[in-house]
Amino acid sequence: MYGPTEDAERTAFRMAEKKYKLYYDNTRKKKQPRPVDLSDVTDFKSISEAYHRNAELPSGIFPIHCDLHTPIFCLESHPGFYFIPGALPVEEQCRWIKESLTSFPQPPNRTNHNAIYGPLQDLFAAAKDNKVLIQEEQYCGTNNSEVEIIENDINVPTWNFFDQSGALSKGVTCKSVLASVLLRKLRWSTLGLQFDWSKRSYNISLPHNKIPDALCLLAERMAAPTLPLGEVFQAEAAIVNYFGLGDTLGGHLDDMEKDWSKPIVSMSLGCKGIFLIGGKSREVPPLAMFVRSGDVILMAGQARECFHGVPRIFTDKENAEISSLELLFSDEEDSALLEYIKTSRININIRQVF
Ligand code: SIN
């Protein structure tokens, strides 16, 4: 699409990504995030509050009223784009944060770690229990019953979680990595029909579980206002994106599904971020908006052809805006979830593929 890489670097979309991306200034004392001008970032929370107060909206934004508890805001500049501020109550946010960390990365769902480590069971629990992932060569002759023997391929290394004390006593260890490091490096998991990133297509032959019914119902409810009466959104696949401080999702299109009249239902959880919605080419200057925990974005029709991405998340106390999650995750049992989400954002985007 571009000649020299510098051209791609100079597109309007890339310039906006660079504007909001996290950079550090080194002072003599410590690394400080460089201040960024956020005055151009559309804030649907304050727009919604003002709309409830005096029924006024900025030009270019119009509401749709439906049976959700909040109006949906649309952009004249981006037909098919819908923003539902605070769509998910905080209890529901907590539920999906928990699922995103505990059950969604479980095999047969794939994650970014599959390519290196194969399927990993119970990553979140392993990180919570301070475990370490160890690579063992079958031919090293371990008799540990926790190690799965792979038939007919005795030289294939396997990766398994162990207590750190157990790990130290192993003579056959080849490589190891802390589960907490892997959790921090978890970038995506896929639910339902599995997406093959190398081919940029769904691979229906890969083993998969159906998307949980509660998530299907939620997506169906959120998508309903964008569909003609009687048409129902069928959640068939979802990608869960995990962001830590400094992580970004570069501008891209979600165009692998057959029917673009069906929206992508995109839920934000955890720390606040900036979402960019651009045009059909990267040359179109994108609109920046805040996405907070509980917000839902729907992209259907023409909006499916628009570049979008996430150049920034905020994890500092003042800007992350997760105090309601902190109240709900106050139990001892939830402390690991809270620790994670205090410095992270999760996005679940749900698709009808066929
Ligand atoms: C995506 O476009 O795939 C995710 C967007 C987001 O994280 O909000």
TrEMBL record:
Gene Ontology annotations for the cellular component aspect, listed alphabetically: cytoplasm
Entry-linked InterPro entries: Alkb (IPR004574), AlkB-like (IPR027450), AlkB-like_sf (IPR037151), Oxoglu/Fe-dep_dioxygenase_dom (IPR005123)
Record-annotated Fe2OG dioxygenase domain positions: 234-354
GO annotation, biological process: oxidative RNA demethylation
Coiled coil location: none
Family under the similarity heading: Belongs to the alkB family.
Protein name: Fe2OG dioxygenase domain-containing protein
Species name: Solanum lycopersicum
The organism's taxonomic lineage, starting at the top: Eukaryota, Viridiplantae, Streptophyta, Embryophyta, Tracheophyta
